[in-house]
Amino acid sequence: MTTVTVRTPAKINLGLSVGPPRADGYHPVATVYQAISLYDEVKARPAPEGVFTISLTGEGRDVVPLDDANLAVQAAMLLAKTFEVPDGAALSVHKTIAVAGGLAGGSTNAAAALVACDALWGLGASRDELAGLAAQLGSDVPFCLTGGTALGSGRGETVSRVLARGSYEWVLAYAEGGLETTDVYAELDRLREDFVVEPPEVSEELMSALRAGDAYALGPALYNDLQDAALRLRPALARTLALGEEYGALGFLIAGSGPTCLFLVAGEDHAVDLAVALSGSGLCRSIQRASGPVPGARLIT
Ligand code: ATP
Q1: Which pLDDT does position 1 carry in this prediction?
Q2: pLDDT of amino acid 60
Q3: Residues with CB under 6 A from ligand 1
Q4: Does 154 lie in the same domain as 20?
Q5: Which residues in the chain come in under a pLDDT of 70?
Q6: Are residues 199 and 149 both part of a single domain?
Q7: What is the Cα–Cα distance from 190 to 181, expressed in whole angstroms?
């Protein structure tokens, strides 16, 4: 029996600027994405027409939906409908990426399912065709296809390459439980009620650090407009960030809509020091290390 396996990375936002909500309710963003070396794996096997199933191992087994609400299933169904495929797919996901952690776990599974089912069904869809479907599935899905370091605009679904050099070492601290992206955006709107909100823009300081490939310049240039809102919803995260600062992180911030905390470190020894301190602090559920940028969706078999 044919099985196709695709690996996709987690995403982080090195910079995330959020504008006022649009008429359709979405917030326009200007973001710099980076794909990091934490991967989920999606396997696709043949199934009869109209049958789409999913099973899951690893992170989030108790919380991720195992029906049509799963983003990977939605991706497979959308691809089948678009290309009028007379087959279904049996998907299995192995998750390393925390669920609802601000790391685009669901989006990256959707990107993987698009690439896996395209190969399973022998469609030969172009990257542009897949990117168009990805944008319908979610704001972060197109970036999860391409990976690397890239600019995201619109609601994040319009992805373009940036001139970026260097490789960066990250330590990630997972909190207990997740934060729903919609709740964090709603909190941001509440915090901004009495202010005029400017259109989103990418920071020149961040771009210049990336052009130089300089981790020491990148650290202080990291920013996230969702951070205050995430901290309002989960005040304890401030202590995790403060611990990273105490241990000399070059930069630290909440990942996307949180609650994962992200620390940029100077190298291997520094990563180990910080990871040990965070583990011993009792402030987080678990710690992972990763580097970036890495490529997006990749067919393994
Ligand atoms: P983002 O950063 O893209 O906003 P996130 O990383 O914070 O998202 P996800 O891990 O994508 O969060 O999970 C968000 C929601 O999507 C959860 O409530 C989860 O149950 C649901 N979901 C649907 N499909 C998946 C999937 N394949 N993997 C993980 N979560 C999924």
Answers
A1: 54
A2: 87
A3: 60, 63-65, 70-72, 93, 99-107, 109, 140, 181, 256-257
A4: yes
A5: 1
A6: no
A7: 14
